[in-house]
Automatic annotation (TrEMBL):
<dbReference type="Pfam" id="PF13561">
    <property type="entry name" value="adh_short_C2"/>
</dbReference>
<feature type="active site" description="Proton acceptor">
    <location>
        <position position="150"/>
    </location>
</feature>
<dbReference type="GO" id="GO:0006633">
    <property type="term" value="P:fatty acid biosynthetic process"/>
</dbReference>
<feature type="binding site">
    <location>
        <position position="15"/>
    </location>
    <ligand>
        <name>NAD(+)</name>
    </ligand>
</feature>
<comment type="similarity">
    <text>Belongs to the short-chain dehydrogenases/reductases (SDR) family. FabI subfamily.</text>
</comment>
<keyword id="KW-0560">Oxidoreductase</keyword>
<keyword id="KW-0275">Fatty acid biosynthesis</keyword>
<comment type="pathway">
    <text>Lipid metabolism; fatty acid biosynthesis.</text>
</comment>
<feature type="active site" description="Proton acceptor">
    <location>
        <position position="160"/>
    </location>
</feature>
<feature type="binding site">
    <location>
        <position position="167"/>
    </location>
    <ligand>
        <name>NAD(+)</name>
    </ligand>
</feature>
<dbReference type="GO" id="GO:0004318">
    <property type="term" value="F:enoyl-[acyl-carrier-protein] reductase (NADH) activity"/>
</dbReference>
<feature type="binding site">
    <location>
        <position position="95"/>
    </location>
    <ligand>
        <name>NAD(+)</name>
    </ligand>
</feature>
<keyword id="KW-0520">NAD</keyword>
<protein>
    <recommendedName>
        <fullName>Enoyl-[acyl-carrier-protein] reductase [NADH]</fullName>
        <ecNumber>1.3.1.9</ecNumber>
    </recommendedName>
</protein>
<keyword id="KW-0276">Fatty acid metabolism</keyword>
<feature type="binding site">
    <location>
        <begin position="21"/>
        <end position="22"/>
    </location>
    <ligand>
        <name>NAD(+)</name>
    </ligand>
</feature>
<keyword id="KW-0443">Lipid metabolism</keyword>
Length: 276
C-alpha cells in the first residue's frame, strides 16, 4: 500500500543489478511512493543484469556510469537533472565489489592493486558521488543520501577480507561528508548496516549460507530481508527523518546487539551431545 512517502521527489539509484538486489527493490518501492529517479550502474554491470527491465517497470531511464570515474559521475548528474526536471532529493549508493574475494585470494595473500580497487569501487566512489553532487550544486536542500554497509566494518568476519576495510571507509566518509553537506544544504548522509542478504554479491562470499543461518539464529527478529531493507531506506529518503544524519543505522533484526540466543545455545548443546 502506497503512502505517497516520496511524492514529487527526484533521485538517482546506484547499483540495481537484478531482482535480488536491494537497490532493485528500493527502485520499485520508490516508484510506488511517488518518486521519479534515474537508474545507473557501471556499463559492464548493465550487461550482466536486467536493469532495463526494471527501468520499464519504473517508467524511467538507465544512464551508464562508472562510479569510480568523476567524469562519468559529472555527466550522470547533468543528464539526470535534465531528464528529471530539477535538482536531486535522494541518492542511493548500493555498490560493492572485491576482486580479491571474487578471485579467491585469502586475507593474508591479498593482491594490493586489487585491494585498492576494492576501496575505490566500494567506498571512495561514495565520496566521489557526493563531491560531484556538491560541486554541481545538484542536491536540493533537505535531501538524503544513503549507502549500504555491513557490520564487518566493526567486527571481524571470516572470508569478508578487504570488503571489511571498504565498509569501514564507507561509514567514515558518511560521517565526514554528512557534516559538510548538513552545514551547507541540510542534506542528510547515512549508512544502513544490513543483515546478510541473499543478493548476487552476498551469495558470492565463501561460507555465506552457513553464516546466513547463523545470523538468523542470532537475531531475535531474524535476518532482515532485502524487501524490508528497501522499506527502511525509503523512510530515510522521506521527510520523516530530516534530523537523522551521520549515522550508521543497523537494520539486522537485532544481530548487532545480541550476545547469544537460545537458538545458538540449543544448537551447540545438540552438537556437544552428538559428539559424546
Amino acid at each position: 500500500m502506497s503512502h505517497n512517502l516520496l511524492e514529487g521527489k527526484r533521485g538517482i539509484i546506484f547499483g540495481a543489478l537484478d531482482e535480488n538486489s536491494i537497490a532493485w527493490k528500493v527502485a520499485l518501492k520508490a516508484k510506488a511512493e511517488g518518486a521519479s529517479f534515474i537508474l545507473t550502474n557501471a556499463p559492464i554491470a548493465l550487461r550482466m543484469g536486467g536493469v532495463q527491465q526494471l527501468a520499464q517497470q519504473c517508467d524511467t531511464e538507465v544512464i551508464p556510469a562508472d562510479a569510480t570515474s568523476v567524469d562519468d559521475l559529472d555527466a550522470l548528474f547533468a543528464q539526470s537533472e535534465e531528464k528529471l526536471g530539477g535538482k536531486i532529493d535522494f541518492l542511493l549508493h548500493s555498490i560493492g565489489m572485491s576482486p580479491n574475494i571474487r578471485k579467491g585470494r585469502a586475507y593474508g595473500d591479498m593482491n594490493y592493486d586489487w585491494f585498492l580497487k576494492t576501496l575505490d569501487i566500494s567506498a571512495l566512489s561514495f565520496h566521489k558521488m557526493m563531491q560531484v553532487a556538491e560541486k554541481r550544486d545538484a542536491m536540493n536542500e533537505g535531501g538524503s543520501i544513503v549507502a549500504l554497509s555491513y557490520i564487518a566494518a566493526q567486527r571481524s568476519f571470516t572470508d569478508y577480507t578487504d570488503m571489511a576495510q571498504a565498509k569501514a571507509m564507507l561509514e567514515s566518509i558518511a560521517r565526514s561528508y554528512g557534516y559538510r553537506f548538513g552545514k551547507s544544504k541540510k542534506v542528510r548522509v547515512n549508512t544502513v548496516s544490513q543483515s546478510p542478504t541473499k543478493t548476487t554479491a552476498g551469495t558470492g562470499i565463501s561460507g555465506f549460507n552457513a553464516f546466513f543461518d547463523y545470523a538468523d539464529k542470532m537475531s531475535p527478529l531474524g535476518n532482515a530481508s532485502a524487501e524490508a531493507c528497501a522499506d527502511y531506506v525509503l523512510t530515510l529518503f522521506s521527510d520523516y527523518t530530516r534530523m537523522v544524519t551521520m549515522q550508521n543505522l543497523f537494520h539486522d533484526g537485532g544481530f548487532s546487539s545480541s550476545g547469544i540466543t537460545e537458538e545458538i545455545v540449543e544448537m551447540l548443546e545438540k552438537q556437544a551431545q552428538a559428539g559424546q
